[in-house]
Each structure stands twice: as structure tokens, then as C-alpha cells.
Write a structure and sequence with these properties.
Helix content: 40-55%
Largest sheet: 7 strands, parallel
Distance between the termini: 52 Å
Radius of gyration: 20 Å
Strand order of the largest sheet: 3-2-1-4-5-6-10
Bound molecules: nicotinamide-adenine-dinucleotide, thymidine-5'-diphosphate
Strand content: 15-25%
Shape: globular
CATH topology of the domain at 3-185 and 222-245: Rossmann fold
Order of helices and strands: EHEEHEHHEHEEHEEHEEHEHHHH
Number of helices: 12
């Protein structure tokens, strides 16, 4: 019987992963550990809170004594580690939280797993980002062999945690899996990230802040496809291997925001082109990476995983979710969000 500790399961991606595992694997016990920072929200997983194979525990991965007790009490057999500080802009204005949670927190988890697990039939699965590889020019893709070149405090903290995880696996023989994924989009994403921020601003007729020229490129993946990829890697990925996960779906920021504007013009019965008039070019992000693009052939060829839906369809579903869940957005965008927004976009 597996008892899987999923960290960060009240956040955006984590909530989709927890939901998938709880519903698909009734024979696993799922322990969801989350600090409930500004980005963590129990509303994200309210639909599974009463399932008999599920338990939520509020706690901090920076507290190693707490982690030790948790491992002993629940006899944790495997870890899927998503808890992190995840927003690049916040890492620029306040890097230390990223260093603490993403690096020290991950090391704490690895250390507790190492000292508790006596055999090698336990999996430690570390969830990471393509941003560890740095920034691409107009051509080329990140592969699993691309050298690390992180350039923001966020990506450097994730790169550090990847290195520490690999060092633990190499030195202590732990069964480690790592995946590095491109930008996710979908329901329950905190509206500080590009897509939900733009949807929210379009709905409220607020300016749409495009950093720099808007020509930076990101590769977007439907969050539920990422959750399925995590399921696939956890169950069939080779121990010690890294898998890049991506959508084969590159967009410049400006084209993506234009597309969102046209989707919302239709849904909100606005004249064509009216939302796009909200587009405002603002000061560029410090050290803004030009382009991310993933070569996802390894996971496709070896594990038979591919993105399941087209971007336009996923984006429309995402827009519908935000339009149908205004209370969720209102709860999140009151209070501390207002302070963040005023400070960041002043
Ligand atoms: P998120 O910010 O939405 O959620 C992070 C969660 O971690 C929150 O629920 C938060 O409360 C929790 N958390 C933060 N600090 C914690 C701590 N010290 N102890 C316990 N819990 C803590 O992030 P996300 O976008 O869902 O990303 C999840 C993971 O996936 C991260 O590791 C991130 O680096 C990685 N990732 C994200 C993307 C993306 O596009 N969002 C892409 C690739 C990889
Ligand atoms: P973001 O969603 O923060 O993800 P990441 O920085 O991890 O890729 O940003 C995606 C892209 O959108 C990135 O190039 C920065 C840009 N961006 C804006 O132009 N304006 C904004 O208000 C935000 C939040 C992001």
C-alpha cells in the first residue's frame, strides 16, 4: 500500500495532481502537505476533501522536525514534490523566500526521505521547470541534455533544488525522478501569472500590462496534461531519469494576449477589438528571458505521453472557468493581492 506525500497540493498545479491521484488511485493514500501561502487555497481541492484515501496537512517544508514527524506518523512511501515559490516577478522583488522554500525546503524533504527509507522501492519525484535551462534565441529547443543556465532568482532556486536532488540520488542511491515542464495554464491559477491576470483585467476593463515589446516567447501546456504527465512519469518513468514536458505550443506574449482579448470580446458581447485597446506596454521585467521552448520527444517516445488538447480549446475552457468562478477570483484578488498589484505595477 502506497502512502504518497504530495507537497504543494493546494496550489495551481498541485491541486490538479492531487485530484487526479485521489480519484484515479483509490488504493493509494494521498497526504497533501501545503503551507497555504498566498498561492495555496483549500478551495482548489474542496471537491475531494472528504475522500477516504485523502488527508490534508498544513505545514512548512522548511520545518524539518515537522517533516520527520509527518514521515513517521504516516509511513510515507513516496514523494511527489511540487511545493515552491513559483512567480518570477516575486523572486525579483524578494528572492530570499525562494531560496528558503525552493532550495532549503527541498533539501529538508530529501534528507527526511533519505533517513526514513531503508530500501530502494521508494520514489522521490521532484517537479521542476524548463526555466532552469535559461533562455533560447529564435531557434532551438531545450532537451534533457541542455546545460543549466538559470537567470532569475526563481529559476536559480529551482536549478539548485534539481542539483541537490540529483546529488542525493547519486550519493545515497535514492530513486529519483525529475521533470522539467514549460508554462502551464488552466483553472485555479493565481491571477499574478500572465493568462489569469490578463483574463481578470480584461473582464474588469483594466490596462493589460505587456512587459517590454511583448515579443518574448513561452511554450504553454494545459495544466491537466501536466498532471497526466506527472502520473505517467511517476508510474512508468525510469528511475534516475529526467523528462522534459511541453506543449509544442509557442506564443509571443502579445499574440497570446490578443487572442485572449478576442475570445473575451465574444464571450462578453463586446465590439471586436475593444478589449485589445486595454493593451499597455510597460517597463520590461529585469533579466526577462527571451524564449522558452521544450523538445518533448523523450517523454513522447519512451512513455507515450502527449498533450491532449489544442491551445485554443484549452484557453477557451480556461476563460470559461474564470468567468464562472468570479467568487474564487474575488476572494483571491482582495486584500494582499491589491497590495502586490499596486506595488508591482506602479
Ligand atoms: P503555486 O505557486 O500555484 O503553488 C505552490 C504551492 O506550494 C502553494 O499551494 C503554496 O502554499 C505551497 N507552498 C509554498 N511554500 C511552501 C512551503 N514552504 N511549505 C509547504 N508548501 C508551500 O505553484 P504552481 O504554479 O502550482 O507550481 C507548482 C510546482 O510546479 C512548482 O515547483 C513550480 O516550480 C513547478 N512548475 C510550475 C510551472 C508553471 O507554469 N506554473 C511550470 C513548470 C514547473
Ligand atoms: P509568467 O506568467 O509570470 O510566467 P514566466 O515568467 O514563469 O514565464 O509570465 C509569462 C510571460 O508573460 C513572461 O514573458 C512575462 C510576461 N508578462 C507580461 O508581459 N505582463 C505581465 O503582467 C505578466 C505577469 C507577465
Amino acid at each position: 500500500m502506497k502512502t504518497i506525500l504530495i507537497t504543494g497540493g493546494a496550489g495551481f498545479i498541485g491541486s490538479h495532481v492531487v485530484r487526479l491521484f485521489v480519484n484515479k488511485y483509490p488504493n493509494y493514500n494521498i497526504i497533501n502537505l501545503d503551507k497555504l501561502t498566498y498561492a495555496g487555497n483549500l478551495e482548489n481541492i474542496v471537491d475531494i476533501q472528504d475522500q477516504s484515501n485523502y488527508k490534508f496537512v498544513k505545514g512548512d517544508i522548511n520545518d524539518i522536525t515537522f517533516l520527520q514527524t509527518l514521515f513517521t506518523e504516516h509511513k510515507i512511501t513516496d514523494v511527489i514534490h511540487l511545493a515552491a515559490e513559483s512567480h518570477v516577478d516575486r523572486s525579483i522583488s524578494g528572492p530570499m523566500e525562494f531560496i528558503n522554500t525552493n532550495i532549503i525546503g527541498t533539501a529538508n524533504l530529501l534528507e527526511v526521505a533519505r533517513t526514513n527509507w531503508q530500501s530502494d522501492d521508494h520514489i522521490f519525484y521532484h517537479i521542476s521547470t524548463d526555466e532552469v535551462y535559461g533562455s533560447l534565441g529564435k531557434e532551438g529547443f531545450f532537451t534533457e541534455e541542455t546545460a543549466y543556465d538559470p537567470r532569475s532568482p526563481y529559476s536559480a532556486s529551482k536549478a539548485s533544488s534539481d542539483h541537490i536532488a540529483r546529488a542525493y540520488a547519486h550519493t545515497y542511491g535514492m530513486n529519483l525522478k525529475i521533470s522539467n515542464c514549460s508554462n502551464n495554464y488552466g483553472s485555479h491559477q493565481f491571477p499574478e501569472k500572465l493568462i489569469p491576470l490578463m483574463i481578470n483585467n480584461i473582464v474588469h476593463n483594466k490596462p493589460l500590462p505587456i512587459y517590454g515589446t511583448g515579443e518574448n516567447v513561452r511554450d504553454w501546456l494545459w495544466v491537466e496534461d501536466h498532471a497526466k504527465a506527472i502520473d505517467t512519469v511517476f508510474h512508468t518513468g525510469k528511475t534516475g531519469e529526467t523528462y522534459n514536458i511541453g506543449g509544442w505550443n509557442e506564443w509571443t506574449n502579445i499574440d497570446l494576449v490578443q487572442l485572449l482579448c478576442s475570445i473575451l470580446d465574444k464571450k462578453l458581447d463586446r465590439a471586436a477589438g475593444s478589449s485589445a485597446r486595454l493593451i499597455t506596454y510597460v517597463k520590461d521585467r529585469a533579466g526577462h528571458d527571451a524564449r522558452y521552448a521544450i523538445d518533448a520527444n523523450k517523454i513522447k517516445n519512451e512513455l507515450n505521453w502527449e498533450p491532449s488538447i489544442q491551445f485554443e480549446e484549452g484557453l477557451e475552457k480556461t476563460v470559461d472557468w474564470y468567468l464562472n468562478n468570479e467568487d474564487w477570483v474575488n476572494d483571491i484578488t482582495s486584500g494582499a493581492y491589491q497590495d502586490y498589484y499596486k506595488e508591482h505595477y506602479k
